[in-house]
Amino acid sequence: MNVSIRLLQENELAAADHIFRLAFGTLLGLPEPTEFYGDAAYIHHRWKTDPNRAFAAEVDGKLIGSNLVVNWGSFGYFGPLSVHPDFWNQGVGQRLVEAATNCFDQWNTPMTGLFTFAQSPKHHVLYQKFGFRLRFLTAILAKQVQQLQPIPQGTRYSQMSEDERIQSLKAIDQLTNSIYEGLDLSQEVLTVQAQELGDTVLLWDDASLAGFAVCHYGAGTEAGSNTCFVRFGAVYSGNDAGQRFEQLLDLCEALTAAQKMSRLIAGVNTSRDEAYRRMLARGFRSEIIGVAMHRPNEAGFNRPDVFALDDWR
Fold first, then answer.
1. Which residues on neighbouring strands pair with residue 232, listed in sequence order?
2. Which of 5, 163, 215, 234 is deepest in the core (most CB within 10 A)?
3. Tens of pLDDT along 223-235?
């Protein structure tokens, strides 16, 4: 079998999305595999963010898989990686991982990672071939949200002036850089705004930024219907970090209610022990448990002093 790896094309996005759902739905044993993930979506908006970071696997002119690479400055990850079930166990996934790691090497990305099934030695062995090492579990947590007080003025990126947005992006960069040098979430903020996937909420302490969360909500985003999903969120570490984290979660819940959604979903690596415990105390419960794999085998920003929400799927 002659497999070629190339960039995914726009006219292939629907087919790539179908393969993604079929592959994961089959792996999980769903009665209707293509219904995996409902009306939530990954492929289209990640491709639109940067088509040069979306890879396709092809055999005899037929699309059989894809992989998308995410660049957060000094950190990067890839996914979802999916291969049509008819082509499993034939080295296709390995070729798609290779394409992603080549990207990281070209960018000189200091830290890379991925989220995979905690219970799957097959996946662990595949990624270990490329230098990824098993670290802590990551919990994807969900909570039912009740009606809260209206979200405060000045906390939503979408409602800011252009000058306020510029200053907010600078403040977000300073915050993420304090967590891990070079970590850059500005593209996530801009993508959510440009593609109307959701909004970014900002937590202010007097005149300075204390925290932020990039959120998707609704069908056609990574959230899905009736759901608000935190793509990435963080507060400054140090004194009162736990309190700031609680306040950021308050904002995320308020945004969920403001958009007339009833579910809030966020991921947290369990190495961030206090952040994880505070979420459980607020009523969040695990829906998915995966494991983070790192390259190199270092903590990065998965550390006990970090109060951050993220999901590397």
1. 214, 310
2. 215
3. 999 999 999 999 9
